[in-house]
Amino acid sequence: MTDVDFIGRLADAWDGNGRPALRPHVEHLALLTLAHMGDELAGLSWSQLSPPARERLVFAARLALDLGRTCAWCFGVRA
Q1: What tens-digit pLDDT sequence spans the chain (79 residues)?
Q2: Following DSSP, what letter does each residue of 7-58 receive, concatenated?
Q3: Is residue 53 part of a domain?
Q4: pTM above 0.70, yes or no
Q5: Cβ burial 25-51 (10 Å sphere, 16+ → b, else e)
Q6: Terminal-to-terminal C-alpha distance of the chain
């Protein structure tokens, strides 16, 4: 099994690098809302975010992934 640098992948996606990239006015806002953070952070790059903000976004992204997997399982979709 290959280890994946989840934080590195999230940072790249947040900044619009790599594939897939997060769209600032859609996925950024969704993750910020899930993390109970203000939407003024949507325009900042990953390096401009404070360490506590990054930690909250990583946690929110993990929650979103877990929810997606659960929904896929409930509706019989294979990932």
Answers
A1: 467 788 888 999 999 987 778 887 888 999 999 999 988 998 899 999 999 999 999 999 999 988 888 888 777 766 5
A2: HHHHHHHHTT-SSS---TTTHHHHHHHHTT--GGGGGS-GGGS-HHHHHHHH
A3: yes
A4: yes
A5: eebbbbbbebbebeeebbeeebeebee
A6: 17
Task: Yes or no: say if 22 and 31 are a contact pair by the CB < 8 Å rule.
Answer: yes
**38 is a domain residue:** yes
Q: Name the token pair of 52.
A: 């506590």
Residue 1 lies in a domain: no
Question: Is position 46 within any domain?
Answer: yes
Query: Structural domain tally of the chain?
Result: 1
Which residue segment(s) compose the domain that 46 sits in?
6-74
